[in-house]
Prior knowledge:
Keywords: Membrane, Transmembrane, Transmembrane helix. The chain is mainly α. The chain has helices spanning about 10-30, 40-60, 65-95.
Amino acid sequence: MATPELAPRRTIGGIIAVWIAAALLGLSIGIFVPVEWRAAWLIVGLGGCLILSFAVQLGYGRSQGFTQRVALSVLGSLLVLGVVSAGFGLATIIPA
């Protein structure tokens, strides 16, 4: 029989941390990677966010809702990287 946790830690912080990491990763890819390689590196960055989300959620040590938390982290990372990618895409077609 398992004993219930008295005060479980909130897991939303780990989800938002992965989103912030995705934003920083997307911005650094957009700044340091040449234009023709950005799409490929953004896919690699999303894979890194997937591994990071697994690591963060495994660090919490709670099995309840693990799949939902990882899915929310990865989906948020996908949206963040999509917005960053759209921003850099618009920046390349708009003349300065």
